[in-house]
Amino acid sequence: MTKEEARKALLERRAALIEEDRLDEDGRKPVTLDQESVGRLSRMDAMQVQAMAKALEQRRAAERARIDAALKRIDEGEWGYCAECGEEIAEKRLAHDPSVTHCIGCAR
């Protein structure tokens, strides 16, 4: 995988994460506590859905941060090298996830 292919894949994944966040906005809205319109179990379900949506949002934010860091490494010429030992990261590993920071040996 070339740096430009990696950049393209990272930018596409970042855009997809932003779109997923946009589509999931309703799930993160506060749960109304109106006893008359929503029963207790329905409210509990809504709160559980809200909690899961917030957790997904946090995971997507963490992945976006990894993508941004990988894009910065590409710009600085450090992409593709292990952050710990400095050796090249295997091509297949980078093809699977261009945002990885460690070779397989150091990732263990």
Automatic annotation (TrEMBL):
InterPro entries: Znf_DskA_TraR (IPR000962)
Zn finger (dksA C4-type) location: 82-106
Superkingdom classification of source: Bacteria
Keyword Cytoplasm belongs to the record: no
Sequence ranges assigned to domain Zinc finger DksA/TraR C4-type in this UniProt record: 80-108
Pfam families: zf-dskA_traR
Keyword terms: Coiled coil, Metal-binding, Zinc, Zinc-finger
UniProt keyword Coiled coil present: yes
A single GO molecular function term of this UniProt record: zinc ion binding
Ranges in coiled-coil conformation: 46-73
Protein name as it appears in the record: TraR/DksA C4-type zinc finger protein
Species of provenance: Sphingomicrobium sediminis
